[in-house]
Amino acid sequence: MDVETFCLCFFRLMQLLSTCVPFSLMASVGTGSVVVGNWSMFIWGFCFTVTLVILIVEFCHIRDHLPFSWYGFLTIYTCYATLFCLLTSILYPTTYIQFFPSGPHRDYAMISTTFSCIALVLYALELLVLWNWYQGKGGRIARYMYTTQGLLKLLETSLACVIFGFISNTNLYLHQPALVWCGAVYSICFVLSSVAILLNLGKCDNRLLLPLPTFLLGLTTLSILLYTSALVLWPLYQFVEKLGGQPQRSSDVSCGDRLTYLVCTWDQGLAVTILTVINLLIYMADLVTLAHLVSVRTENQPTVS
């Protein structure tokens, strides 16, 4: 076993421990109806499960029989796990622990945060090892996730997952058709960004009628139009009183009940608004990058006389 393989095995075993501990601790005390707590538990459980599956596949030597690029899958998953653990390590203590009174529950939450930070470091280290190991080995998809386009797609889908965590509280939007449309927009754009990644993972770009950069340019343009509509409608119907919104935080009764709603409905609506703005900016940066790529490829195409 070479040094890189040993490091990856060690990292994954430690990742299992560092994600299992916080998930088990918070499962033992419960998170109530807190969105951030439930989202964090899902991330820890998801990372634990996928890392366990990766170890089983590696030890059973069945990766060569899979219908997709195993190196590409590892790179994509490690990128997501690193970013999700980073978000969890920030959101969980800032919106959850600070409201706990001193006692066992607060101690468990602090221990969970510590192990979440450890998991973040481990996944980041694995990402560095994968980058050094897969250069020239991992193929196109492994390199793709380290390009500007790949990182932007990673951010787009990751922020969409955070938005999903907040809008899992259906009280935010089910009372207004316009807000339901916004929820649909977040889902549609997540699917479109995921399709862009899967096209590279499955090497399906040759089956498209259009060149891949041009096709992705169309998907990104559509996503920007959809996100723009959500950016207009979501704050209007969340915070404008004439449209049924709540302009002030004090008008939301749930914000006064910190024992049940550590992140109240009004705060969740504001968080979704901020995340919508950030993701729209990322989509615009993605559009600029793709437009430049399409322009360069067009200029480099040989002219037929």
Secondary-structure topology with pairs:
Blueprint: H1 3-29, H2 35-60, H3 70-95, H4 104-134, H5 139-144, H6 148-167, H7 177-201, H8 212-239, H9 265-300
Helix pairs in contact: 1-2, 1-4, 2-3, 3-4, 3-6, 6-7, 6-9, 7-8, 8-9
Give your account of this protein's structure.
Keywords: Membrane, Repeat, Transmembrane, Transmembrane helix. This is Myeloid-associated differentiation marker-like. It is found in: Membrane. Helix 1 runs antiparallel to helix 4 and helix 3 runs antiparallel to helix 4. The protein is flat, with a radius of gyration of 21 Å. The protein contains nine helices and no strands. About 75% of the residues lie in helices and about 0% in strands. With about 300 residues, the protein is mainly α.
Given the structure, what is the number of helices? 9
* Assembly state: single chain
**Uncertain regions: pLDDT < 50 for 5+ in a row?**
none
Distance N terminus to C terminus? 57 Å
Largest sheet, strands/sense/barrel:
none
Q: Helix and strand succession?
A: HHHHHHHHH
Percent of residues in beta strands?
under 5%
The average pLDDT is: 81
Structural class: mainly alpha
Shape, per Cα inertia axes: flat
Helix content: over 70%
Radius of gyration: 21 Å
The count of β-strands is 0
InterPro entries: Marvel (IPR008253), MYADM-like (IPR047123)
Keywords: Membrane, Repeat, Transmembrane, Transmembrane helix
Family: Belongs to the MAL family.
Main location: membrane
